[in-house]
Amino acid sequence: MPVDTHITDPALTAVLETSKAAREQALALIDLVIQEKTAAGGEQLPVEAHAAISRQQKLLNTNLAHLRGLHRAAHFRARETKGQTAEARHEVDVLHLQLQNLYYEQRHLEGEIENCESFNHKYQELPLIPVEEFLSFHPELADADENALMVARINHERTEREALEQQRLELQKRKQKLIADNKKRRDDLASLDKDLEKFIDVRDPC
């Protein structure tokens, strides 16, 4: 398969076409020289032959000069394209590195999420009332998500425990007061017994 079938760039196509034309021009010049020398039979070439060969040489030199210009331009474009390719490759490398960092961060976050989900939280050990019972007290939370419902149940448990603690403290105060009252009454009874004994001793000296 010819090489020029793979080339689509207009500048490179022009280089190939000019190169092909210069090659054909050179071959035609060689054929002309051979033909004129054969016709001269070893004699000096006539002026017309020299003129024809000179014209062909000028055309060939023109094509070669044009080809050198196109080659130089193609070389500069190739160098520029090489620089652009290097910059694009660098950008791709940077993006690839960023993508790898994102994959690493994603795997790290997925691991952290899994650890958090499997962590044995203390709130899971709380003796909370069943969800159905809680929702019977708070029907407005029937459509709440699992997290909001758990927070509400914990707050409910805390409120209930605080109320029970308040009741316990009040009962403890009442208990202390009753104990103090009973002690006072025992002391009063003991004092009364002593007074009664003195009274009996006074009334019955024997």
Automatic annotation (TrEMBL):
Signal peptide (from-to): none
What InterPro entries does the record tag this protein with?
Answer: THO_Thoc5 (IPR019163)
Can you supply a Gene Ontology BP term from the record?
mRNA export from nucleus
Alphabetically sorted, this entry's keywords are: Coiled coil, Nucleus
> What GO cellular component entries does it have?
THO complex part of transcription export complex
Protein localization: Nucleus
Coiled coil (UniProt feature): 154-181
Question: Is the keyword Protease assigned to this protein?
Answer: no
Q: Which GO terms describe its molecular function?
A: mRNA binding
Family of this protein? Belongs to the THOC5 family.
Q: Spell out the protein name for this chain.
A: Fms-interacting protein-domain-containing protein
Species this chain originates from: Lasiosphaeria miniovina
